[in-house]
Design a protein that fits this description.
Chain lengths: 148, 82
């Protein structure tokens, strides 16, 4: 399973850690990032601090996407025994999780609201689980019924 | 667009600049101000500020914001799980 985080986001605690670092501890900006900072008229140090905050939170986002992928795959296999997920793509800017996989010999793609993923993984709510199941039912191929 | 957790450049009205100055935020000379967003809601953006090394959340109301620029120049991170 490939786990991809596209974009970035920082938690408040990681943002605070980045604010407290000395300028020497900040990551160097790439030429493209320097260009963005210049065009926006913001200081390279401020831009580097926001970049650092994003780096600190990246692992958390990666872990979340991976945990959800593992959970979803186990749910899919209850429906289709050979189901597998090829990739989990978390897009931070539009708050979506995109899943690509195969089931019953066919490819499928799902698009799930990140908010649903967060709330489900944090609360374990059965209502949210039902919503996820509905997305699975609508988007994942079912096994062919055996001819009698 | 999900703004929570993003760092964005906001273009403020003159009143907005005054409001942020009152909140003791460091303001640059130009019109764009880089802010880190904790949450976005109907009233405005809850932004993160530091004072004496402590973090504060400050509500920047929509009426003080003329525009938002969201730099997306940070790319993909790919991990593999067996």
């Amino acid at each position: 399973m490939q786990v991809i985080v596209e974009g970035w986001r920082s938690s408040s605690s990681d943002w605070l850690k980045a604010q407290q670092l000395s300028p020497e501890e900040l990551p160097p900006l790439s030429p493209e990032q320097k260009d963005v900072a210049e065009k926006l008229g913001i200081s390279e140090e401020d831009y580097a601090r926001s970049t650092k905050a994003g780096e600190l939170s990246r692992q958390e986002l990666q872990a979340k996407a991976e945990a959800f992928g593992t959970f979803l795959e186990s749910r899919l296999r209850k429906r289709v025994a050979d189901a597998s997920i090829q990739s989990v793509l978390l897009q931070t800017f539009d708050g979506r999780v995109r899943i690509a996989g195969t089931a019953a010999g066919r490819e499928f793609r799902l698009q799930i609201d990140e908010e649903l993923v967060d709330n489900l993984m944090q609360s374990g709510s059965s209502e949210l689980e039902e919503r996820l199941q509905r997305i699975i039912d609508l988007g994942v191929p079912a096994p062919e019924a055996k001819a009698s | 667009m999900r703004l929570a957790g993003q760092t964005v450049a906001v273009i403020l009205t003159e009143e907005g600049k005054q409001v942020l100055s009152l909140a003791a935020a460091d303001l640059p000379d130009n019109d764009l101000v880089l802010v880190s967003v904790e949450e976005s809601e109907d009233l405005g953006l809850w932004i993160r500020l530091t004072r004496q090394d402590q973090m504060h959340f400050f509500l920047l109301r929509w009426e003080y914001i003329l525009g938002i620029d969201l730099p997306t120049g940070i790319g993909k991170v790919v991990g593999l799980r067996g």
